[in-house]
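# nightly structure sweep
# worker-07 picked up a monomer target from the shared queue
# config: single-sequence mode, recycle default, output format = C-alpha cells
# input follows
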Amino acid sequence: MITTSRARALTVALALCLAALSSTVPPSSAQSADPSLVLEINRIRAIDNHAHVPKVVAAGERADDEFDALPCPPEADAAPFARTRADNPEYVGAWRALYGYEHADMSEAHARELLERKRRVMREQGDNYPAWVLDKLGIEVTLANRIAMGRGLDNARFRWVPYDDALLFPLDNSALKRANPNRAFFFGREESLRKRYFNDSNVARLPSTLAEYLARVVTPTLERERRGGAVAIKFEAAYLAQTFLVSPRELSEVLRYWLTLYPDKILFGTDTYPGTPEVDWEEVGWQATTSSRQALALALSGMVRDGEITRERASEIARGVMRENAAKLYRIGAR
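# output follows
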C-alpha cells in the first residue's frame, strides 16, 4: 500500500465557497446524469482557471519551488480527507487513464511498475510532458499560478498568473508574524518574494513614500509581469482558509445552486499541485477534472429533469463553465 506523511488539502475552484453556502439547502441534483450530457461534457476541451503546474526539471537539477508563493508550512501536516488519502482507489483510475496502468490494486510492486511507466513517459515527452498531461485530461489551456514560469510551460497551453501579495506588505511585519507559527512562515515567504521584486526593480531599500514605492516597485513589477505574459495576478491572502475536495455528489448540490444564479460567472479549476511520486499533480488534475465534469453533469441533469432549463440550455451552460466563461474573461481564443 502506498503511504505518505503529508496530504495537502486540495480544492476545485467550483467549490471554493462551500463553507459560505453551508447554511443554504439547494435543490437536489439528479440521482444519475443524462448519459448524452456526460459524453458531451467529457468532450469539452476545458480551460483550467487555477493550477500549480510544476516546470520540467532534468535529473540533477534543483527541484521546482516556484509553483506556489505560499505553500503549506512544513509542520502543517494534517490527517488527509477521504479523497486525498494516498490509498484512495480513485487514483487507480487516474493511473489507468494517464499511463495505461493494468492493475486493480495499489500494491507496492505495482506502484513501482507505475513509477517506471511515469518516468518512461517523462523521458519520451521531455519538455512536452506538461502539455501531454493536459491532453490526457482534456484541458486545452491552464492558468498556471506560479512565481515564475519555466521549462515545458509554453504560453500556448500555460498562461501565467503571478503572485503579488508581497507588494501589499512592504512595512515591518513582525507583529503579524508573532500571531502564530503559520503566519510567521507565510510572511517569511512573502518577504523573500518582496526582496526578489525589489532586486528585479533595481531598488535596494524601501522607498520613503507611498508614491515613490508605487512608482519604483509596484508599477515596474506589474509591467514586467504583463510583458512576461501574465493574464491575471493572484492574491493568496484572500482565501487563506482550509478547503477540501468534496465528492461529485456533494459538489453537484452546491453547483446547482450557483448555476441558477450565476451560470456565466462559474469557472472550472483543478488547483492541481505537486505531491508524491505516485500521486502527483497529474493524478490530482485527473481527480479534480473528472469530479468537476461528473458534478456538472449531475447538476445540469437535475435542472433539466425539474424543468428549470432545456437540454439545449444545459449544453450551453456546460460549455460556459468548462471553457467559454474563462475564455471570455481572459480573452483566450479558440485553438
